Inverse folding.
């Protein structure tokens, strides 16, 4: 059975044509499942009975199931979703003043092994299918609909490395961006990578106006090697060469994500090295992220004084810098934390 939520429109057109249907059927189906939010094929009243019978026989409209739901007092919603094969993934909605952003997971588990990250506690099992990523947005939208709200921004920054699941992630982006899909603007979609160079170079030539974020977290190779093993394969010189290629070909600027870890990467020497590393400051944005501690490692959150000293130094160096607003402090806020918690609870019962 083919899950229609996983079909990028051009591929759906080709599939339907191969089955003897007209090309326009793809747009018709997109309109029903995304704009009109049809949950069954029998609701599609302007589609012939014979085609509906074919759809019921060979296609499905299947979404992940909510296994656990946490809602913070600040409005953050975090879901643990169960997939068809029993695997569980996280997704979270963050209520910013400019809209409702969803953090989408791209893999079951993660192999990047960043030492500070809860997502890497459980290794990669498999890539997510396109429909499983689309499903995260649709399930969250169904909850927000009760509050007369919807998802307006998407960040592919949950568990997993998006460029390690490149083709499925790009199909997902095209579906949510398509005017007959979820119609989320390209400038409201961000892909975050820990620095897979091949993915960055390929992404530069996709012709998309979406955003690219780099998980940097250290201003030199020695420290980044300790925090992020991926740096051993893609050191900073090669990474920044790829970033410059991306900027020149995609004509989009890059955001650097930088988690502040107490006594590790939050001192003024690191701030100086970071400013020196970003030699074309006007084109880059640095997003400083307060750390959500994870029980399984020893890293601690930087104190407010250190965070603001780091921020102020970058400002003085004319770096475009922000401090990320925090959400969900009263729930399992760290990325991957809810899934890891559930996994360990289940295994401790055995």
């Amino acid at each position: 059975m083919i899950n229609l939520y996983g079909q990028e429109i051009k591929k759906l057109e080709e599939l339907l044509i191969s089955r003897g249907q007209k090309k326009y059927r793809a747009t018709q189906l997109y309109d029903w499942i995304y704009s009109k939010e049809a949950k069954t094929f029998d609701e599609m009243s302007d589609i012939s009975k014979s085609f509906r019978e074919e759809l019921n026989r060979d296609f499905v409209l299947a979404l992940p199931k909510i296994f656990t739901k946490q809602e913070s007092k600040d409005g953050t919603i975090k879901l643990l979703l169960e997939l068809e094969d029993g695997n569980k993934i996280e997704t979270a909605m963050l209520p910013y003043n400019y809209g409702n952003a969803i953090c989408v997971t791209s893999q079951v588990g993660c192999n990047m092994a960043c030492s500070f990250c809860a997502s890497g506690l459980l290794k990669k099992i498999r890539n997510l299918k396109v429909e499983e990523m689309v499903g995260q947005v649709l399930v969250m939208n169904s909850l927000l609909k009760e509050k007369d709200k919807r998802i307006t921004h998407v960040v592919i920054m949950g568990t997993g490395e998006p460029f390690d699941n490149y083709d499925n992630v790009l199909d997902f982006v095209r579906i949510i961006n398509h005017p007959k899909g979820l119609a989320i603007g390209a400038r409201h979609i961000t892909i975050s990578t820990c620095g897979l160079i091949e993915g960055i170079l390929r992404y530069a030539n996709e012709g998309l106006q979406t955003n690219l974020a780099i998980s940097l977290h250290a201003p030199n190779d020695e420290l980044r090697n300790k925090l992020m093993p991926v740096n051993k394969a893609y050191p900073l010189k090669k990474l920044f060469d790829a970033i410059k290629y991306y900027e020149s070909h995609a004509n989009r600027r890059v955001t650097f994500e930088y988690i502040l870890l107490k006594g590790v990467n939050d001192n003024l020497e690191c701030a100086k090295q970071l400013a020196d590393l970003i030699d074309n400051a006007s084109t880059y944005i640095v997003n400083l992220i307060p750390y959500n501690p994870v029980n399984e490692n020893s890293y601690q959150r930087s104190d407010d004084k250190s965070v603001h000293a780091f921020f102020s130094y970058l400002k003085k160096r004319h770096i475009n810098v922000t401090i990320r607003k925090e959400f969900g402090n009263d729930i399992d806020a760290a990325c991957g934390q809810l899934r890891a918690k559930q996994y360990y609870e289940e295994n401790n019962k055995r």
About this structure: The two ends are 34 Å apart (CA to CA).
